[in-house]
Amino acid sequence: MIENALARAVLALVWLLSALPMALQARIGRGVGRLMHALARERRRVAATNLALCLPELDAAARDALVREHFALAGRSLLERGLLWHASAERLKRLVHVEGDVGFAERHPGPVMWLVPHFLALEVAGAATQLFQRRVVVDVYTPQSVAAFDAALLKGRGRFGRAEFLRREDGARAIVRAIRGGRVFFNAPDMDFGLRDAAFVPFFGQPAATLLAPSRLARSLGMAVQPIVAEILPGGQGYRVIFGEPWTDWPTDDPQADAARMNAFIEGQIRQRPAQYLWLHKRFKARPPGAPPVY
Questions:
Q1: Which of 81, 162, 201, 235 could be disulfide-bonded to 259 (CB atoms 3.0-4.6 Å)?
Q2: What DSSP designation does 112 have?
Q3: 222: helix, coil or strand?
């Protein structure tokens, strides 16, 4: 009860702030991020460890600056959920700048998978797929432990009426049924979900438990695969969502090679916007046999 009451208070504050000009929201969000950096010692350590493993060419001072900027942007990402969940479609269309082949999924006659890496603007990518194209999207999400947050998340993400949500525990069959029913699969597979249907594949040269299911699913259903990358722009400029060129050589008959190709693509995108990837996630939590833990 107390958790839900606090959650409702936070959600009400975020809703109120969503009416502010974008530039002011950005400044407040960065302040929230700086506070998070000061208080969230464990997550600060996770981000620093990830950057030391993935970008060892940077010196300690550069990595520390990157961690600080990451937290500032993470604060923006959290605060600006209110904007994404409550602002009018017209306002969001002015703030979300889309590039690339936005209409590919509408034109393509068969099933489509969007591969969407975990950048801090992932929520913006979800909104863009509903605002700028007409096919219904199916997304897999992890239910939140606080009921008020869970309800707000589902309502906010689905408010344009072009999204359906499955829980991770609903399993692959539910995803397949949705895809065969004409839904576009919004797939964010670049997290460490353990070794079920996964393999250790290099990610910035480190062995990372990487899902093989995206390749297998795309191959079994004959899906076209299009990457989407979203980023936060400075100040009041909003966001950029890039609908990439559909991959013509993915999937293949080798899911592990496909996973490596996917990781290499994500690496390239991270190097273009290194502060915006979700470094707070324990990407290397699963370890190969005999390898020591890194967190």
A1: 201
A2: E
A3: coil
DSSP 90: H
What is the pLDDT confidence band of residue 6, given thresholds at 50, 70 and 90? Answer: confident
Burial readout 31-62 (b: 16 or more C-beta within 10 A, e: otherwise): ebbeebbeebeebbebbbbbbebbbeeeeeee
Write down the H helix ranges in 40-88. 41-54, 60-79, 81-86
Q: What average pLDDT does the chain have? A: 96
Task: Give 14-33 as a DSSP string.
Answer: HHHHTTS-HHHHHHHHHHHH
Q: What angle do CA 159, 161, 165 make, to 5 degrees?
A: 85
96 φ, ψ to 5°? -100, 110
| Type of residue found at 229 | V
pLDDT confidence of residue 171: 87
- Beta carbons of 230 and 125 less than 8 angstroms apart: yes
- Locate all alpha helices (DSSP H) within the chain, ordered by sequence: 2-17, 22-39, 41-54, 60-79, 81-86, 89-95, 104-107, 122-131, 147-157, 172-180, 213-221, 255-272
Measured CA to CA, the distance from residue 186 to residue 140 in angstroms comes to 8
Domain spans of the chain, in order of start:
2-276
Residues found in the chain: 295
What whole-number percentage of the chain has pLDDT above 90?
A: 92
Q: How far is CA 154 from CA 21, 58, 145, in A?
A: 25, 39, 13
Q: State pLDDT tens for residues 103-148.
A: 999 999 999 999 999 999 999 999 999 999 999 999 999 898 899 9
Q: How far apart are CA 192 and CA 211, in angstroms?
A: 8
Residue 102 tokens read as: 């936005």
